[in-house]
Every structure is written in structure tokens, then in C-alpha cells.
Amino acid sequence: MKHLILGAGPAGVIAAETIRKHAPADEIVIVGDEREAPYSRMAIPYLLMGNIQEPGTHLRHGGDHYQRLGITLHHGRAVKLDSAARTVTLDDGSTLAFDRLLIATGSSTVKPPIPGADGPGVHPCWTLEDARAIMKLARPGAQVLQMGAGFIGCIIMEALAARGVKLSVVEMGDRMVPRMMGPTAGGMIKDWCQAKGVTVYTGARVEAIERPAAAQQSGHGGGGLLGKIAAAVGLGGDKPEARPEPHGAAMNVRLSTGQTVAADLVISAVGVRPNIGFLEHSGVRCLVGVLTDEHLQTNVPGIYAAGDCAEAFDKIAGKTIVSAIQPNAAEQARVAALNMVGKPIELRGVTQINVLDTLGLISASFGNWEGVAGGQHVELTEREAGGGGRHLSLQFADDRLIGCNAIGWTQHVGVMRGLVEGQVALGPWKDKLLHDPTRLMEAYLDCAQAQASFAHTR
Ligand SMILES: Cc1cc2nc3c(=O)[nH]c(=O)nc-3n(C[C@H](O)[C@H](O)[C@H](O)COP(=O)(O)OP(=O)(O)OC[C@H]3O[C@@H](n4cnc5c(N)ncnc54)[C@H](O)[C@@H]3O)c2cc1C
Asked: CB-based contacts of 213: which residues, under 8 Å, 6+ apart?
């Protein structure tokens, strides 16, 4: 049996290892399009902070790990899938045959259609290659503007702040992390960031990134700031070793509010999109991501998907979703791999949990945090002078907790997860929580244990 895995990220690697464990004689090939040892994007912030070096981002250590397991790593980009012929064409024109296929190609950053966004000094923060470019420019004192304050944006902010840059963040939504946090929580995170010295523009768009004519002219000669930046990020120029000067910004970033912000580096964190373009005309059904069933199988038998590119059924949301976080990639890969080797197993659900450390402020968002029509809601907020404070927002449907937002209250994170994911029937505890949401732990101990012992006796 030949297993072909497209994508050498966490989903691809975990699937390959799981297959090997259960099918010692099967052939396993991973195709990845990055010229890197398989690594974890999650580790990039630690690299930016200087807490680890590049090898620390690698998913597995020991040069012969894959070879020892009989897993072939093949460099290439899948450009076409022929589901009927059971082959994948790579960008060099070669084809690889398969019996079972796993699509684990992850997602890529969306390029904002902004004038000037294609020029030097503008980078996403998604790959190791991006991190290398950012580290060259994000030096102490450099003016850095980040577009986007979503989940990944906030994680990157923490790393940038640790590098001692002067940071501005521009977010289109009316608050920070708008797809994860309600207005109160998003506003509290903004206040906290501002108190920590970050300038945050919410309800604002970047309209253009302009490079002052003087910088451009001197850049043509290779000696100006722009030329140095271009050289530093490998975009040409005659002095690749030149370091950018952190002052005298290379760019003026024009905002929809009429303001202009100077920047030596612009980081684009405006969103990601599953890497599924090569599946066009393949017969594999895609919505936002590759649509999968509870076994992570697509509509084509023998072809599976897992990780950031996969769209799977979430029992809490009651619909299929792409939830691009690493725990989902890992679990989906494990489940897909077991099914690929003929061990039927179902995915329990898609975890919609985000715990975020924004410059030291811990926030969490679980499940359906916006609530549902006809559901009940309780909110408790304790603000602190100078930013910070605590906030708890619980959403119920019938007598179940279906989602929450929290700032602080870190001791409740495990309990919130248990109640939301376990779909625990709260009975009379729902009214007690509506009266005092801080009694989550008591509710969990009472209800979850009762539910567990009931399940046990059935
Ligand atoms: C800076 C940063 C911080 C993050 N922090 C967190 C965090 O704290 N917690 C968390 O849960 N998640 C975090 N994430 C998200 C997490 O990294 C992803 O959810 C995870 O990487 C998904 O794994 P994956 O294997 O599905 O995809 P990926 O890691 O994206 O791997 C997919 C691989 O497939 C390759 N590929 C794409 N197309 C093709 C093709 N056609 N042919 C061959 N190969 C292809 C890609 O280049 C890539 O190497 C973070 C991400 C970033 C960028």
C-alpha cells in the first residue's frame, strides 16, 4: 500500500508517523514545497524572540528521524490531482502514484490588495523564510507597522515587542481579535496593548504603502535605506550584508482615517486561506477548505484531508468549519492516518479553542462565543486602571454552555473547555451561573462528574 501525503507540516508528519506505527510495511512519501526540515509555524514567535534558534522550530530532531521510520521526504509542489488515475503531478512535471492520499497542505497568508504591499519591507509572518526577513528588519528602535490584529497577529505582536521595536497595529474590525473576542474583551485587549506602548488603530484600513521619492532614488543606487532593506531581504541590491537603519523610515503607511504612519517594516497579518487551488477539476469537493466526513475522508474514497486545509464537522457549531490551529491539525492527522490504514475511527469534533497571550494579558475564546438566537448570556467585567482587568462572558443554549470569552480567569480555562467540548448538561447550575458566572469550577465538578458517572453506568 502506498500512502502519499501532501504537505510536510505538523499534519503531514503526524499522519506519516501514525501510518508507520500501524502499517510497518507500507510505503510512505511526504511531499513538501518548503526547502526546510519539517517545522512548526507555532515556534516562529519564539525564534523571533530569540528564545530558540532555527533547529528549535523543527518538528523532529535527529537528522535521520524520517529515514529511520522509512518515511521518504520529497521536495516538490503538488499542482494537479487526478483522482481517477490516482496520481499527483508536481511542479517539475513528475507524477507520483498513490493508493491512499492525504491532503495536508495547510494554508497561506492572504495578500492584501493594497498599493505598495508588494514592495520591499512588507512581509507576512508565516514561514521560516518570512521570519528570517523580519529578523533582519525588526531591530531595536525600528518602526514596525502590523496590519491585522487577529489571533496570529496578536501572537506576532508579542514577539515583535520583545525585539524592542516601536510597534503600531492597524485592525479593520472595531476591536482587537474581532473573530475571537466580543466588543468588551477586544476593547480590553486594545487598552492593555496601548498601556504597554503599542499604538493600536481599530476600525482603520491601510490604504497605501508609499515609499518616499528620496528613499527610492537613493535606493536605485543601492546605498539608500530602501536599497539596504531590499538587499537585506534578498530582493536585489549590491550589498546583501548591509543592515537596515532602524530610523528614518522607508515607508509611509496611509490609513483610511487620514493618518500616516512611518514604518521601516510592515507585517501583513490580514488572514489566511487553505492551499487547495491545485484541487480544481480533481473532483474533490471543497468549500472554504477540503470538505471531509467524520473519518477525514473526502468525497473521493481513499483521499483524505487534515489540518489547516481541511474543513471538518464541528458538533458544537453544528456545521463544517476550518479551525486553523495546531491541536486540530494533529488530531485530524491522527484520525485520518488510522482510517488510511484500515482502522476506522471518527473525529470527535473540531476544537474551537484559542488561548492567547497578548503582551502578558491572557485571554481565551471557546466554541460559539457569540451565542445563538434564543440562547442566554451573562457577562462580568472588572476593569483595572491602566488596562487589564478580568472579563468573563458565557453563552448558553438550553442548559449547556456553548461558548465563552475570558480575560484573566486562567484558572477556569480547563473547566470552560470541559464544559463546552463535553456539552455538559448543567441543569439547575445554568441559573446559578447566570447569577454568578465565577462559579464555573463548582458547576463543572458537580455536573461533569454526574454526567460521567451516568455514562459509566449505562
Ligand atoms: C506565527 C504563527 C504562530 C502560530 N501560533 C499558533 C499557536 O500558538 N497555537 C496554535 O494552535 N496554532 C498556531 N499557529 C497555527 C499553526 O501553525 C497551524 O495551525 C499549523 O501549522 C497547521 O499545520 P498543517 O500541517 O495543517 O499546515 P502547515 O503547517 O501550513 O503545513 C503545510 C505544509 O504544506 C506545504 N504545501 C502547501 N501547498 C503545497 C503543495 N501544493 N504541495 C506540497 N506542499 C504544499 C506548505 O508549504 C507547508 O509546508 C501559528 C501559526 C503561525 C504562522
From this structure: none
